[in-house]
Amino acid sequence: MIRKELRIILLSLGISLLLTLAKFAAYFLTHSVAILSDALESIINVVAGGFACYSIYLTGKPKDANHPYGHGKVEFFSIGFEGAMIGIAGVLILFKAVQYFIIKPELLQIDQGIWVISSTAVVNLLLGLYLARSGKQLNSITLSGNGQHILTDAYSSAALIIALVIIRFTGQTWIDPAVSVVMGVMILRKGYQLMRQSISGLMDETDMQVIDKVIEILNEHRHRTWIDVHNMRVQQYGNNYHIDCHVTLPYYLELSQAHEEIKAFEQLVNRELKGHEVEFFIHVDPCIPALCQYCQLSECPVRSHPFRHKITWTRENVLPNRKHAVD
């Protein structure tokens, strides 16, 4: 899988480099600041693509003594770096646009510029869609982040084409820096979103969608001996997840029986959470009499209270560090 990701990102890097050269050629033909803005953003595509290559290579390395959870966290550095580069490009674009408001340029060969930018926009659109789809299929946030960036580039190029066509037929050159300002703001927003995603991953912010999926799996395939699950925490390392939780089992189970129950718990989630490898650290709690009220083990030989009702696991009762109590 890692080799496939590398092939995809290397393809993206090569295409981005060619498109960047084409956009700079269009800028030198037309002297359009909006085209220059598009070219500057494409430079970021190339730089970010190079960092993404290294990120995917590092993610594929096995766990070692210094990295017991693997190297997957580097993907969050990758999208953070890409977000920072996008932000820098946005600032440069806004700065250049302000300059062109003050000193109005003479635009040349608009027709050629339109054709060149149109061609790069189509290629970027196809490449961005391919990267986004591949990132989803391979569960790679690096590919997905790179795809989102390139799609943003394609959309901004589309807006640029519209502006160039209007300038071509109206001669209103002020539209050129105005469009550049809009593009700069859009690019800054995308950079912020990627930085936010990076910080969330590095700070181990809980992905509630993953939590909900794991809880859904456990509710659907619940063993009667799994009396209680609580204190669940999820950390993401690239394409892998690390989950800590407490599982309450009948206190009279032998060690080998408890081991088999926990093994079944781990295998269930790994089987149903397709496309991800999940590592568990599970703390086993012995049951207490208060839990009999919702324990579904009808043949329990030590039951001290009658069964009252089943508790459906939700994020509200699985995440806190306490056993589920029934009043």
From TrEMBL:
GO CC entries: plasma membrane
Claim: Transmembrane is one of the keywords in the record: yes
Cation efflux protein transmembrane domain residues: 9-203
Top-level taxon of origin: Bacteria
Chief place where the protein resides: membrane
Keyword Transmembrane annotated: yes
Listed name of the protein: Cation diffusion facilitator family transporter
Organism: Chitinophaga niabensis
